[in-house]
Amino acid sequence: MILLNKKEGNRSGLIVLIDPDKIKVEDVISKVNIYQEQGAIAFFYGSSQPVKNDIHAIAKEIRACAKIPLILFPGSSEQVTPYADGILFITLISGRNPDYLIEHHVKAAPFVKKMGLKVLPTAYLLIECGYRTSVERVSKTQPLPSSNIPNIVAHALAGEMIGMRYVYLEAGSGAKNPVSPEIIKAVKAEISVPLIVGGGIRTPEYAKTLVEAGADFIVVGNVLEKSDDKEIVRKFAEAMK
Question: Domain containing 152 — which CATH number?
Fold first, then answer.
């Protein structure tokens, strides 16, 4: 089963990021239905910070009404839950903190296997966005300078060469400056695995420029958390064409 799959005829796919601390259990059904009915192809579920809400209860509720894949996007091994279809097994290769290169993976692996989650090995690259993000603080790593595109490309290539099946360029939640089309174009020209891009993507118009630059999947979270307008979800989905 392929969990990340573009709609037929589209250049990219819209993924909605759901933060368990930014959604109430009673709102799950209405929001999930809006997202999937308006064109999202998958949900990412997780947070870069320690979660206060009941991760399992919210994931279970999402899974019960979701008609598209629910994929864990955990900030740590503590965010693994069986109520999902798969998990982004992310390796933070832009940094050099062993906790996010292997330690959390070792802790999570037995549970992931026992739960039967489909694993999506992902090279995760933090890209400088204009200020210090929560991902940087929690992971205690520095992002790759956005001005050094050859270095970003080299990291993406290294991720693919060590066996990662996806490359994820991340500016950070609510980033001041999202990943630029120039970076996406350069990375996409060199790698042969799908390219995921997220962080600070506030408008469908900007999302479309990233699709045109070569992004295979666009991740949107903050802008949708702040609005119940299904029209904006539809416009983001339209930008994937």
Answer: 3.20.20.390
**Half-sphere exposure for 220 (CA within 13 Å, toward CB):** 30
Report yes or no on 37 lying in a domain.
yes
130 within a domain of the structure (yes/no): yes
Q: What kind and span of H or E run contains 107?
A: helix 104-115
> What gap in Å lies between CA 120 and CA 75, rounded to an integer?
15
Segment 134-170, tens digit of pLDDT: 999 999 999 999 999 999 999 999 999 999 999 999 9
Q: Which domain holds residue 199?
A: 13-238
How many Cβ atoms from other residues are within 10 Å of residue 52's Cβ? Answer: 9
Is the residue at 168 inside a domain? yes
Question: CA 227 to CA 16: how far, in whole Å?
Answer: 13
Taking residue 53's Cβ as centre, other Cβ atoms within 10 Å add up to 15
Instruction: Give the integer Cα–Cα distance in Å for 230 and 223.
Output: 12
Among 48, 228, 229, 225, residue whose Cα is nearest residue 136: 48
pTM: 0.97
DSSP SS3 for 1: coil
The total number of structural domains in the chain stands at: 1
- Cα separation, 69 vs 178, whole angstroms: 25
- CB 136: neighbour CB atoms within 10 A? 19
